[in-house]
Amino acid sequence: SPNIVDQNPVCIALLKHIKPLSPIEQIHKVQKPFGWKASIAAADSISLLIMRTHLFALCLSMATIGIPKANGVMDDYDAEMGEFMNALPNLDDTPYGLGQRSDISTEPEEDDILASLDDEYEEAKHCVWNTCDKDLSESRGIGKFLDLPFIKKIASNLNPFGSKKLRMHFYLFKREFPECGREVDFSIERKWRHCGFNASLPTRLMIHGWMSQSRGSFNRDVKNAYLKKGEYNVIVVDWSASSANINYFSVVKLIETFGAELAQFIRNLNRQFGADFDSMYLIGHSLGAQIAGSAGKRLKPVKVNTIFALDPAGPKFRHRGTEFRIDPSDAKYVESMHTSANFGFRRPTGSATFYPNYGAYQHSCYYLGCSHIRSYQMFAESINSPLGFWGTPCIRDNGRWQCDYSQRQSIQMAGEPSIHKEGIFYVKTSSSDPFALGKQ
């Protein structure tokens, strides 16, 4: 409905900043004299048209979230969103989205800015992770529906003629700077020498999944849980420039590439800082779990201590051999948690594999993807839970469960540090946060 677009503040702001060209204008731009220059111009115009069309479709989909009430009067929530969007600067003039520089960024201007901030970099004063984190977790307005830098990544991946950024970024968090990550880049000496990594502390690396944001809830919740627990090197592995692609199957093809890059980064932690492989855990969600497995394979014969595979991605992996998916041999200990039959992997994938509520779906999950994200919500909770998640050993035979109730709730799922065990386990959880029930 045109009214949805005309009255929705998100669409108004998007159309204001995107400035899409009409199909007639695009066709007019393409009609140049024949020749190779004309072909290039046509390709560029078609590329822009495709990208802007996708963004316009995204605008329409978001508009349905905030349809005005029937009486035509916007409530306080809509008014707040409209005021926020109208205050946004033009995206063409602000390379960092909201006019502030974020350390979680893949913008080309990053190195130029950092070059003039050596002293500030040592104290991490330039970073505004905490501001972005607050925007995403607490905002009642645009933060819940629209993260502009992330949408720019989606738009970039929608452009078939655009350049692809096959690069990971690594951000270190510690108790001294819990909200302000420092980039660890071994190609630039000052970015790793002064980052504050402490080889005497245990290291936890988190790898997000498909269509996840570097500032999203997986990284935020797990990072905060570890830093509440104690002293750690917590490293956020950001590959969102490539994972922010609605074509899941294209992203799957990049898993081995990013697995190799992660493995090289882990080797550099050992070579440059003297970090012990046995002190390292990889925590991967969805496709991030498959990247963790790929990295583990490439590190052999060396192995990290533990991989936590949180509902490892199933589509395009279910029929692959173990050499192309997460496997118990990818670390000294691999623990998997399966919470979603649709997005996740159904068969056991770890030395120990846990199936909360039998793993097909989770209680009180009524929207697509809820069961999938429940895995990292439970994991983050397990790190500091006084009750814990407790599993019962079981055997799965042709889809049927046979559990040994003489050992009922005898094996702990997740937690910190990892406790090595083997087998398949059923775990009963609560339907709402906190999910841990302890031993009952």
TrEMBL record:
Gene Ontology biological-process annotations: lipid metabolic process
Domain Lipase: 162-435
Secreted is among the record's keywords: yes
One GO MF term: lipase activity
Keywords: Secreted
Pfam families: Lipase
Cellular compartments annotated: Secreted
GO cellular component: extracellular region
Top-level division of the source organism's lineage: Eukaryota
Cited InterPro entries: AB_hydrolase_fold, Lipase, Lipase_N, TAG_lipase
Family in the record: Belongs to the AB hydrolase superfamily. Lipase family.
UniProt name for this protein: AT29263p
Species the sequence originates in: Drosophila melanogaster (Fruit fly)
